[in-house]
Structures are given as C-alpha cells and as structure tokens.
Amino acid sequence: MTTSKKRNIVVIGGGSGLPVILRPLRDCNVEVTAIVTVADDGGSSGVIRNFMNIVPPGDIRNALVSLSLLPEDFLKIFQYRFDSSDEFFQNHALGNLIIAAMTEMSGDIFGAVQKLGRYMMISGKVYPVANVPLVLHADFTDGTIGSGEHEITMAHKVIERLSITTEAGQQPEPTSEVLFAIDHADMIVFGPGSLYTSILPNLVIPIVGRAVHQSNAKKVYIANIMTQKGETDHYTDASHIKAIYHNVSDHLLDYVLTNTAIVPEDYIDFQKWNEISTQVKVDTSEDKKLGVVPITGDFLKLRDQGAFHDGEKIAKELLEILDNKI
C-alpha cells in the first residue's frame, strides 16, 4: 500500500502573527517550513543581538514553540520572560537566552536552530532567512529615511519603499535551505503579521523575492485584521498587495484572505494594543484587478481585548486552496 506524499507549505513572516497559523498547520497532514525574519532589533531580541552580534532570536523562538510537540509545561518554561529587576535578565525570554547560548556554542545560528528543533521535537522546520542579523531601511514619503525595525515602527510615518542589508551594508544571502524550501513548496503563505516589519523584510532580500516570484507554488497573503498606525493607516487588503508588488514584484500573489467579521471597537483596548488603528477593509474589485483571488469570511478571534486571526479557520481555508477547492 502506498501513501501519498505530504504537500509542502512554506510560511514566511515573523513577529507574533506567524505562530497563529503554524500551530494549526502543524496538526494537518502537511510539511510545514517557517522562514523567519532576522531584522528585529527591539526588546529582548534587540539586546541579545547588540551584545552578542547574533541573529535576533525572538521570532525564531516563537516559531519553534508553535511547531513543538513537547508538553505545554516545558514550552511555558521556554517562553518564560524574566520579571526581575536585574539589569541583565529583566524582560528576557528564557528561550532567547538558550538560542543565544547554542549559537555561541556552534558558531552558527542556522545549525543551532536545527539542533534545538530536534531537541524540541518540532513537527516541521524553522529556518532563519539569513545567518546574520539584517538591518531594515525605509524611505518615507516625507523624504526622510529610517534604519532598524524599531526605529521604522516608532516613526509612525508612511513608508514609500523598503530595503535590507547586512550590518556591513552588503546584500543579504539566504541559506540554501531557504531557497530549496521555496523552490519545492506547494504553497507559500505570507503572514499574518506586520506588512513592513515581519513579511516584507524577507521578501526584499533580492534572491528571496526572485525565488518566490519564480516558484510554481500557490501564493497566499493573509491580510492583517487591523491597520498599523503610521504604516498602514487606511489600507485595504488591496493596498497591502500593492505595497508588496511595489517593493518586490508584480503578480507575486494568487490569493488574499481577508477577515470580514466586524471588530467591535468597544472591545479593543487601544492603549494595550497601541500600534493598531482601524479594521482592514476588503476591496474585492481591486483585488481582482491585481490578479488576486479574494477569499473573505469570519477569520476573527477576539481575546485579551484585542483582535487576532483564528488560526484554525485560516488553516482550513489554506487546505481548501491546496486541494483545489477554491
């Protein structure tokens, strides 16, 4: 008796959005590869990056946890963030320190993450998009420029174009494993996550952008639930697509998934979630003009006085696309 080969789904992104769909996809009959941005320079990741000159570990940590089959009690320890007043440990996640230690021991972030993935019994693969920390650069519409993910986010300005370099100002080189995963993908998923600081930092690496464009995989963009202050104010789902095309390449996407369930404003704590602004609206006619198939529905999950994607519903839609039912 023969068994059908599992299809390959590559998910590209970073931040807190990526794990939302990694966990449900992990439990489906597919091979999942997470390609994770390495441009983060804020919080615990930024401190470790600056002190040790290694790839920021936070987004990688979250991806590993999402795909891990270890008991939840262990994962809670790995995710534990120190609440100490100690100058060094304060706000550091234990997993970030473990990733940093393993990177220092092996001298290679990619090898360290693969080894840690085996220890954590992950179902799938987690690949940093590059082996060295990268620096994101933004040209703003007001003529100013910004460098560094944190600086760009805090500027709250409209971004005209992004680029990315190594800290030495050179063009980044993705690992061969990243390019292999893209080339052999049956589906490539972008997001959910911040358009300009989680998704595009991967795609504006020229070699990665070209590989994605040339891939025969079905390409799906998951539009954010809410816009981000200064970055994507008043963006529709089509506006996100146009930004990707403007920064990377036209005709890069096949589908866009957009939530149409109404986010109740009286539920959202805009002080707690102070980077969000208004709900992203769907523009199906513009989506179609861009050559992208719009898929709309209730993909909303309300929790902690915030608006998030329902990962289970998103995974179901992705499998429908993969099975040619959409």
Question: Can you tell me about this structure?
Answer:
- This is Putative gluconeogenesis factor.
- Belongs to the gluconeogenesis factor family.
- With about 325 residues, the chain is of the alpha/beta class.
- The protein has one domain: CofD-like domains (Rossmann fold, 3-Layer(aba) Sandwich).
- The chain is about 40% helix and about 20% strand.
- It is built from 13 helices and 14 strands.
- The longest helix is centred in the N-terminal third of the chain and has 13 residues, at about 95-105.
- The relative contact order is 0.13.
H-E string: EHEHHHHHEEEHEHEHHEEHEEHEEEH
**What profile does the largest beta sheet have?**
7 strands, parallel
Report the β-strand fraction as a percent range.
15-25%
Class by alpha and beta content: alpha/beta
Structural Rg: 19 Å
Subcellular location: Cytoplasm
Keywords: Cytoplasm
Pfam family, one: CofD
Function: Required for morphogenesis under gluconeogenic growth conditions.
How are the SSEs ordered, and which strands pair?
Blueprint: E1 7-13, H1 18-26, E2 30-36, H2 43-52, H3 58-67, H4 72-79, H5 94-106, H6 109-119, E3 125-128, E4 134-140, E5 145-147, H7 149-155, E6 159-166, H8 176-183, E7 187-190, H9 195-203, H10 206-214, E8 218-222, E9 226-228, H11 237-247, E10 255-259, E11 276-279, H12 284-289, E12 293-297, E13 300-303, E14 306-309, H13 311-322
Parallel strand pairs: 1-2, 1-7, 2-3, 7-8, 8-10, 10-12
Antiparallel strand pairs: 4-5, 4-6, 9-11, 13-14
Protein name: Putative gluconeogenesis factor
Main location: cytoplasm
Family: Belongs to the gluconeogenesis factor family.
